[in-house]
Amino acid sequence: MPGAAGAPRPGGTAATPGARGAPAAPPPATSPRWSEQVPDSGLIAVLERPPGRGTSDHERLERIAAFERAISWLQAQQEVEIAGYVTAAERAAVPDPRRPGSGPPGPFDTPAHASRSATAEIQLILHLTGAAVLARLERARLLHQDPTLAPTAALARTGLLTAPKTRKILEGTVGLDPAQAARLQATVLPKAATQTTGQLGAAIRRFLVSLADSGLPVRRRERATRTRGVTVQPDADGMAVLRAFLPAAAATGIYAVLDETARHRPCGDGADVRTMDQRRADALTDLVLRPTGHASEGTAATADAAPPADVPGVAPTPSGIPQPPHPTISVRINVTVPLDTLLGADEAPAELAGHGPIPAADARALAFAPGTVWYRLITDPVSGRVLHRDTTRYRPDAALAEFVRAQHPTCTHPGCRVPAHRCDLDHVVPHDPAGGTGPTRSDNLHPLCRSHHLLKHSPGWQVRLLPDGSTRWTTPSGHVHVAEPTPVGPRGAAGAGRRGPGVLALLRDPGLADRLAAGVADAPF
Questions:
Q1: Which of 153, 278, 447, 507 is the most interior residue, by most CB within 10 Å?
Q2: Residue 34 lies in a domain
C-alpha cells in the first residue's frame, strides 16, 4: 500500500531496521578514522588495546585498516634502519680526509669488509639467509638513499605503500633514467595507495610501454641476466624443488629439449605409463646425471623393463641409453643413516647434508646402491653427536677431516646449510705451531663455507666450539648466536636404552658393516 511502512521509495530499497544486509547508517561524526592517520607511537598504543563490547563495525574496520598501515609504516622504518646501519659501518672504514695518515676510524680497512660484517649481523639478528638479507638491503638502499625515488620513499614512510607495492615500483624503475623514473612515480603514485598490487603493476606496465625508449628493454634485460642462477629448495616427503632463472630463450630451449627427449626416449617392450610431466622430469635427470653413470628411476624402469631403481629417483644408466664417454663425473652426496634404519629394524629418517631428513626407505636404497662408500660412526645415544668415525680406509689427516665433517654435516655458522664437504676446515683457535696453540684436532676444527670463513676472521667476530658440539658466535655488536650441531644418531630416551638386533650384531661382529657394503652378507634378522 502506498505510504506503508517498509515500502520502497524511489531510488531506494525496502529494509527492516537492524536486519542483516540492511543499508548501514552513516558513521557518527565522532567515529575515529584510524586508517587516515599517519602511524606513530600514539596510534600503536590505541590499536594494541582490544576493542570494547560496544565498538561499532565501522570502528573495527578502521582498526583493521590502521593495523595494515602501521605494518607498512614499521617495515619502511626498518628499511631505513637497515640501510643506515650498513652505510654507517662502511663510512667508518673510510679514512677521515681531515686527518691524513690516520687510517679509518673503525676496525675495518675497507668499506666492503665493513659491509660484509654489518650485513652478517643483520642476518643473524633477523634469522634470515644471506641472500634474503642482501636483497632487503639492496631494496632499502635504493628506496631510502636514492634521491630519484624520494617520492616513493616518502609515501612508504607514511604507511600508505605496502612492501609488495613498493617492490613493484622499484622493479618498474629498473633501467630508467632519473627523468623517466620521476615521470613513472608521478603517474602511478597518486592512485597506488588505493589500488591492489596487481592494479599497480598493470599501471606500471602501461607506463613502460608508452615510453619511446628503444634502449630500455636492452638495459632491463642486461640487468635481469646478471641475476640468473640455479637454486635447490628442500621440500617434504624426500623431494626438492630445482629452480633455474635463465634468459627466456635459454629456458625455452632447455624445455624444448626435455620435451623432445621425453617423447622419443626408448621404452623397451612395455608401455610407458608415465605422464609427460614425469617423463620430462626424468629426462632432466637423465641428461644431467648421465655423465655420472646414472639415469632417472622412471627411465630405467621403462627402457629395460627393469624393476624399480635401487636409489630413489636414479638408477644405473640402462643399456638402451647411450653411455657417456670416459672419464665420467664423480659427485659426492652425504647421507647419514642410523644403524637400525640401515638394517631395517627402525624407520627413523636419515639426514641428507644440505637438505634435511629423508625417508628411511630412500636412505637404505642409497646406502646399498652400487658405488656407495660406507663409513661407520659412533654417536652419543642421548645427544646424537658423533663421537668416533671409523678410520680404517683413510690416512690420518683425511680421516680427521671426514670425522669433523661427520660431526658437523653443514657449515657451522647459524642458519647456513652449505654441506660440509663443500666447506673449508677451519681451526677455531688459529693454528700456531711455534706457540703450541690451535691444535689440529676434532675439538678445534669445524667446517665453514668460504663466505663465513672470511667473516670469522673479520675484526670483532669471535667463535668458540662448545663441548656439546655447538658453535658460539659473538658478533662485533656483542650479540651471541649459537649453532647447534645436527644430531646424527638417535637421541634421547629412545636412543639411550635401545640396542636393536642390528646394533648388537655389529657389536659382536665389527666386520659385518664391510661385508654388508660389499653385498656378501644379509641383514642379521
A1: 447
A2: no
